[in-house]
Amino acid sequence: MKFFLKYRFAAILALIFTMLSCTREASREVGKGTLQLSIGSQAPELIVRSGFGSVMPAFGVNIVGEDGKHSYSVADSRDFPAEGLEIAAGVYTVSVESIPGAASEWGEAVWAGSTKVTVKPEQKTSANINCTMSNTMVSAEFDESISSSFSSWALSVDNGGMPLVFSSDAGTQNDTAWFDVSGVLNYSVEVTTKAGKVFRKGPESIGGVTGGKHYRFHITQNENGTVLLTVVIDGSAVYNVDSESAESSHINELTALEGDSTDHSMMFMASRGIASLAIGHQDEGLAAAGVPEWTDLVTSQSISALVNAGFSCEKIAFGSKGVHSVSFGGLLGRLALGDYEFKAILTDVRGLRNEVVWRISIVPPVESKISSVNAWARFAVLKGEWVTASKPEGLRFQYSAAGSGVWTDISDGLRYDESSRSYSADIYGLEPGQKYLFRSVTNADISNDKEFPEISVTTDANVPTVPYMDFDNWCKSGDAWMPNPSGAATVWDTANPGTASLGTVPTTPESSDVVSGQAVRMESTTAGMLGINKFAAGNIYLGQFNKVEGTTGASLKWGYRFNGRPIALRGYYKYKPVNIDYAESPMTHLKGTPDWGSIRIFLCNWSQQFLLNTATGNFLQEDDPSVIASAGLYFNTTNSSYVHFTLPVHYNDDRTPTFIEIACAASRYGDYFTGGKGSVLLIDEFELVYDPADLSEAEREAIGYR
């Protein structure tokens, strides 16, 4: 703001009064079409909101016009204008891809997506892009039976290049890796007994590997001591392989060298020479997966159909005395849930036969599992998924207070998504600072006495409030009313400390028109000296008045230290607006329209109070990365009595706040010296809400915690 020297004192006063509504609402010129961007993904931690909240992660943005003349790019989506990007009208393809961070040799998830939009002149167009993971995610899970039986264990995985090793020796057994898509994942397992003996299985291969899937390798030990490896792809199926060798009196001459219930392969040899090694089945499920009914690796003209079905094998020369391997790891990803059986018949040149039967069961370990728990102070949001083809009977969540051993069903209010085979629910009435266990169960899994994956979480221990929210305590500092008890630290403040000496006190205690005790009365007015008046809005905020800044402004210390996560602000207000009779650019078009009152709340991640400065234009914006949650209530009608309001607080992420800010004003646009002289706002009996059971469903949805 720029004034002549003779307006110096008036400018100081006017900018002191602008401390209420400190979120500037920028205007833009109307002209070219405006492209707004919204990026999202199926992963909760990868939600990108344009225009409010922090952007995580960052995406590179490319906007290419079909006319070949216009293209635009934004290197980092966090720099994409919140109000939108003005570009030439036309048809564009908008593509985004996550920007790599400080990735280790284990890589990181890559998220990408695109959409086509038509930007029209002088209109806003939204490009809504839902990103999916474009590379392959791999993790390992070693059961406790492995650590109790062996001194070391490792899983090696590669996509045809350098392998990554999930190893107890290297401390990487619980890490996660991402691979570029090559169509295959090769893997092998190695365990070392406590006596120093090494056992290896593999390498094996999984074919048909695509991007956007999570391959979980689970390694455990059976009761008979054999090591069992199962693979879960996106939670949809577990692949257990069971093989069985037939008895043969010629075992030393005609041998299936290896093969047990954990292998995806078998090795064959015949000391006198192989005459035939035939792979065959009479299984409709295998036929549907493309496995030929009969293939002889020696006599068949081609084995390509077997290879295309996911087998790894090669043609064998008649009379070969070498060791030959047949692997079917690539077949497993093609099979639906169910049981399958096929065999290999080995015949030597003398006509001696040995037969190996493979029995495969594609089964889930359990029909459902819990995938995430978002725990707050007095409630939690649960998400789960089922792995069966259809929603299983009795699908529900259960929870238990840690150590109690008592499980309680959560079967009401379940929300299902059949397309993704997922479901969710909210649980209310939890105790702050309490450790709970959560799990997903079904009727069949309970009857079969299955072990259910559990998630253990502790609810937020902090449910703090803000002092003096009943606004019953007031004192005077000179001529200035202060909304705090006498002698207490300043929690709430107003513009009064900077204006009382000039005979203007916009914010005062109200004793007659109240809900209880006393209330806050804010009246917008004008003040000045030397015959020059400027508009000043009545206000109250958490923090302290700091000082006059030079000749053009003032600064405030905004915020009160706070570490809770409330879900709403509740209280009472009463408003009587007048028409706006003071207006300055860019709000001159509002002159003659009803004034607006406002109540706002911010939860922020600050190391110290926010220094708001009207001289430098340093105002708190809702899309500032430090803002964890925010909400605003705006009104412009006259109330004959107090209105009881509930203002849901919308969360951008799950960080824990360090400060809270609550600010109220009788004139919303006071920082533009715009409002109605005589607009009056009364507020009383504020409180912070932590339990969503106290809210309506519409209010719960507005919070964004799901």
**Uncertain runs with pLDDT below 50, 5 residues or more?**
1-30, 43-56, 235-263
CATH superfamily of the largest domain: BT2081, beta-jelly-roll domain
Q: Strand tally, please?
A: 49
Helix residue percentage: under 10%
Please write the CATH class name of the largest domain.
Answer: Mainly Beta
Oligomer: single chain
The biggest sheet, with number of strands, parallel, antiparallel or mixed sense and barrel status, is: 9 strands, antiparallel
Average pLDDT, to the nearest integer? 81
Helix segment tally? 8
Query: Could you please say which CATH topology of the largest domain applies here?
Result: Jelly Rolls
How far apart the termini lie comes to: 43 Å
**Rg, alpha carbons:** 34 Å
Derived structural class: mainly beta
Task: Explain the overall architecture.
It is built from 8 helices and 49 strands. With 706 residues, it is mainly β. It folds into 5 domains: 201 residues, BT2081, beta-jelly-roll domain (Jelly Rolls, Sandwich); 99 residues, Immunoglobulin-like (Sandwich), CATH 2.60.40; 103 residues, Immunoglobulin-like; 122 residues; 85 residues, Immunoglobulin-like (Sandwich), CATH 2.60.40.10. The strands form 11 sheets. Strands 34, 39, 40, 41, 43, 44, 45, 47 and 48 form a 9-stranded antiparallel sheet that branches.
